[in-house]
Specification:
Elements lengths: L5 H14 L1 H5 L4 H5 L6 H4 L5 E2 L5 E2 L8 H13 L5 H8 L3 H13 L17 H10 L2 H4 L19 H12 L11 H7 L4 H12 L15
Antiparallel strand pairs: 1-2
Helix pairs in contact: 5-6, 5-7, 8-12, 10-11, 10-12
Length: about 220
């Protein structure tokens, strides 16, 4: 990361963490959440399911993702900080308790008891590692990219590469009512890269072993 951005980065981490504190106060019930995912499973409960907006890409794996990140993301859609019409419509239909319960469900979904924690991620190409260093990705997402330093940050190792690419580009998008993500930290990082570099970064991170998965519902197996 550019050294000139570091003080701003630290300040923004503090700000975003305090903003997300409200979402962290509610205690989620995973069993209750399992009964509230009817609006989720049509996309996130089908292995390999692809969305077509803003371009064709696989929907993200969310089983095994951190509950506080899922809650933070849903609240960002609800507030309009993340501009995706379908996801905003779904988030708007959820109460704060619904969000906490759904997040708790997906955090525990598909998680194997006693699974070993992931170690340091294997290196990719020299170009990929140069991009990881430039973005200081491990400083937030952990050296395995599955142990974020703040629970409102996502696990990203093993996430679909095409989804990661679309998400990263969204942080660069401005003044578009349908597309974009208003996260100042990620916006500052993503804007350092060309789209070709973001694609290479996404391909590397997506190729790593991770804790995320898609757990199909019985009706979709």
């Amino acid at each position: 990361m550019n050294k000139l951005l570091l003080p701003v980065f630290i300040a923004l981490v503090t700000q975003v963490t305090s903003i997300s504190a409200f979402a962290q106060e509610l205690k989620g019930d995973a069993q209750a959440g399992e009964k509230k995912i009817a609006l989720c499973i049509g996309c996130h409960g089908i292995i390999g399911y692809q969305a077509s907006f803003p371009e064709v890409h696989k929907v993200p794996k969310i089983s095994g993702q951190g509950a506080k990140y899922i809650a933070s993301a849903l609240n960002a859609y609800k507030k309009g900080d993340r501009k995706h019409p379908t996801m905003r419509g779904i988030a708007d239909a959820l109460s704060d308790q619904d969000i906490a319960d759904i997040a708790a469900h997906y955090e525990s979904s598909g998680v194997a008891a006693g699974a070993s924690a992931l170690g340091k991620a294997a290196d990719g190409s020299s170009k990929a590692m140069e991009l990881v260093a430039k973005g200081a990705c491990g400083s937030c997402h952990g050296e395995s990219f599955s142990k974020p330093i703040d629970p409102t940050y996502p696990k990203i190792a093993g996430q679909h590469s095409d989804y990661l690419f679309v998400a990263l580009k969204a942080y660069k998008t401005e003044s578009n009512p349908m597309i974009g993500r208003g996260n100042p930290i990620m916006g500052g990082i993503a804007k350092q890269f060309t789209n070709a570099e973001l694609s290479e970064l996404a391909n590397y991170i997506g190729s790593l072993p991770g804790e995320l998965k898609t757990v199909p519902q019985a009706k979709f197996k």
